[in-house]
Design goal:
This protein is of the alpha+beta class. It has one domain. It has two helices and four strands. The chain has a two-stranded antiparallel sheet. A two-stranded antiparallel sheet has the order 3-4. β1 and β2 form a beta hairpin. It is elongated.
Length: 143
């Protein structure tokens, strides 16, 4: 039995949720960015997570799969088209006077940020619980 497996799983989840929170923060910060280096408005970014499965051979010689954590497979751009806002005085307005803004809803992003934050907290709690259990097991051995 791998005693540190719980730590590894929680650590991968903490890393993934941290990246998710960073992306959400960037989305919120760029909600009104009409011009980027690539050209056009900022595009909302979303992480794609994948479960990591570790395969091993058990004592009976059978192949077993067990969870090993989570990883970010890629960061995908949102496929929704940009919002058109009529503002002919804006420097990025097209010939009809419309400006392309990112399709980012700050309320949705804040809900996603709260969700990511709670997931992060849950993984910290799981990590600390495993640490406390291992510490208690070591204390039993001292008696």
């Amino acid at each position: 039995m791998d005693l540190f497996r719980n730590f590894d799983i929680s650590a991968t989840a903490l890393t993934a949720e941290r990246l998710r929170m960073d992306l959400i923060s960037n989305n919120i910060a760029n909600a009104n960015t009409t011009r980027t280096k690539e050209g056009g408005p900022y595009t909302r970014k979303v992480p794609v997570f994948m479960e990591v499965i570790e395969e091993a051979i058990n004592a009976q010689g059978r192949l077993v799969s067990r969870p090993a954590g989570v990883k970010v497979v890629r960061i995908k751009p949102d496929e929704n088209p940009p919002r058109l806002v009529y503002d002919p005085s804006h420097p990025d307005a097209n010939t009809e006077g419309y400006v392309l803004y990112p399709d980012i809803n700050p309320v949705v992003e804040m809900v996603n940020l709260i969700s990511a934050s709670r997931s992060y907290e849950a993984n910290v709690t799981a990590f600390n619980s495993a640490k406390d259990m291992y510490r208690a097991a070591l204390d039993i051995g001292r008696v």
